[in-house]
Structure formats: C-alpha cells, structure tokens
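Hi V.,

You were right to ask for the full record rather than a summary. Here it is.
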Amino acid sequence: MSRRRIAPRWTYTIEDDGALSAPPELLMLGYDRFTEASPLSDHRHERSYEFVYMESGKATWEVGGRAFDSHAGQLFHTRPGEVHRARMDHIEPCSIWWMIVLDPAETNGWLRLEERERLELSSALREADRVVTTEAGILDTFRRMRRALERGEALSALELRTGIVDVLLRVFRPRKQRLPVDLNEALTRLCFRIQAAPERRWATAELASALGVSESHAYRVFREAVGQSPASYIERQRVESACRRLLRPDAAITEVAFELGFKTSQHFATVFKRYTGFTPSQWRRSNI
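Predicted structure:
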C-alpha cells in the first residue's frame, strides 16, 4: 500500500476555527517541509510559547544571541516575548511541526488544569531545557492533533487538550541515551574527525569501521543519534567550513570549493545556497 504524501505546508491558527472551538490556549499548529533554505527572520510570540519538533533534517535557532542546534527527533522551544530566528535568517532543509500555545501563567483555568498543576507547569516551563530529544511517539501526537482540527468532531477539543499536554510533558521527560557508552564515544570521535576534515570523502565501510559496526547498522546509528544521514551531515560540515573560509577576503570562491572537495564551483554554489539561502558571493558580501 502506497503512503499518502503529506503536503509541504499545513497550518491552523485560532482565527481559522469553525463551529467546534479548539481550546483557546492553542494559538497555532503547523507542519512545513523545506527542500532548501527558506527565510525565517526575527520574530516573537507575546504571551505564548512556541514548540518546534524536528521530524527530519537539522536547524540552528538563535535566541538572545545564543545558538541552539536541533535535529530530527528533538524538540526546541522559545518563551513568551523572546525574539528568535533561524540562523542567518534562513531555516535549513528539514521537516518540522510547530505549536504555539498561550503561556499557562496568563490565565486561570488554563487548559482546564487545576490551579496547582497550572502553576507547577508554568514554573517548570520557565526552567526547561531549550532542546530535548523525545520519544518517536510525539510525531503521532502532532498528527492526531492535525486530524482532530480537520475533523472538527465532538471529541476533537478533548483530543487537542490531551495533545498539548502530551507535547509539554515530553519537554520534561527527554528520551534517555540508547546507544551503548562505547558506541556513543566512537560516534563522538567520528563527528570530530569529520568536522576537522570536511573535505574528506568517507566510504560507508570507513564510517562503519570507525564505529565498529556493520555498514547497515552504521547508517541507522548515525541517523538516530545525529538526526541525519552521514552524507547530509558531511555536506553540512562542508558548508559550515566554507562560511569560515569565505571570511578571508583573499580566498577565491572557486578555491574554497575545491578545497572542500566540490568538483565544480557551480555544485558548491548550489549546495551552499540550499543550506544558507545565499550564494557564496552573497554570503561573503553580507558578512565581510
């Protein structure tokens, strides 16, 4: 049976609500799939939290001058009134679900919780980690919430309240590390080696040997722990290195492309723009 293709973008806002009212605490719910870097500049959500679940890919967020990396399987959030954006004002290729909910501290009876529960939740959210790794079940939660909004049936509001609570609880219950300690350490060393020499072309057998596992298992380990395939991770590291090298005024763009293992400057420019939203020359002009 073929899988139903999910549209690139879907959103719900509180203004869209019809005959059956969704919980007023749910201000927005959405899904987006980006095949290339897309603009996402400074913005804020007054009196509300935003939660972004990375279904696939990787993104870097900037909040208050700090950068926060998140990859597939992780949940990132911002607090009420915080100015935030994607790194370099562009979100990288990825698939995300996001939810904007009213701050529990704003109103009594928030999501019909008891007062003690509301206050404890509000306090916990203010102290929560920005990025947490979650169990895979959170994806089903977002999809159920979407279906509930699309159906608009009598119990949809209850499903939505349950979904919101489920997402928030996952912020405080991150998934524990599943990799054995020795394999996790080997993966960390491998990532450092890739970062140190992004121009290197790794064969699948070399990656597996570095991790001490089979080739098929190496791909699964890398994707589960890092959130993307080895090829995507290496490509991203090449772009990261290119950004640093392009800060040298005397470095020719073609030279940087060849240094990082790209066969042509055209291919380099295509990959660079897919991750940053800029061509190498545009990026250099805006950063030097």
